[in-house]
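FORM 7B: Structural annotation worksheet

SECTION A. Query
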Amino acid sequence: MKKNIHEIINVANNIYDKGLVSGKAGNISARFKGENGDIIGITPTLKSLANLDEEHIVLVDIDGNVLTKGKPSSEVNMHLEIYKKRPDVNGIVHTHSPYATGFAFSNKRIRRLEGFGEIKNPYLPDIEYEKPGTDELAVKASEGLKSGDVLVLKNHGVICISENLKEAESLAVFVEESAKTQFITYMLNSVEDSI
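SECTION B. Predicted structure
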């Protein structure tokens, strides 16, 4: 279990250092097997992902019962709903990365680029805004991720999921790089059009 907790801390530090979250925004979790069923380790509420220690990671069961000290992320129910609907998922990374979130606040969509799995849909799926931490967001996000691995939350951020936490982190980095490339392309095209 210690290994799983350290992986959460490492990924939290990585996504903070890469600028995918800032301040006290974003949250990540990992699912692992416990003696009495699945246990989810999740980052705490109102704490920067930049400087987490072992005691900051909160363990909950699949029903949201807190098993350790601390208060889990306010979006714990969103993570739990995704895990319940997706038994193949063991890692969730929720970011507020600047370029991808910029798209989430605009009327433009992020194209799914080659480099991270099969392209079944030309754009990353998105859902309309629901207030963070609400049951409505938890339900809509889990529905939106029923068959995919990325979801853009309008006016909010991005969720990336995978079979393990490191893969979910890699996907979050790829989504941000894709959004950055597309933003630069839009800017270059708009400059070209005005010449």
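SECTION C. Observations
The mean pLDDT is 94. The helical segments are 2-17, 76-85, 98-104, 135-144, 165-194.

SECTION D. Sign-off
Analyst initials: ____
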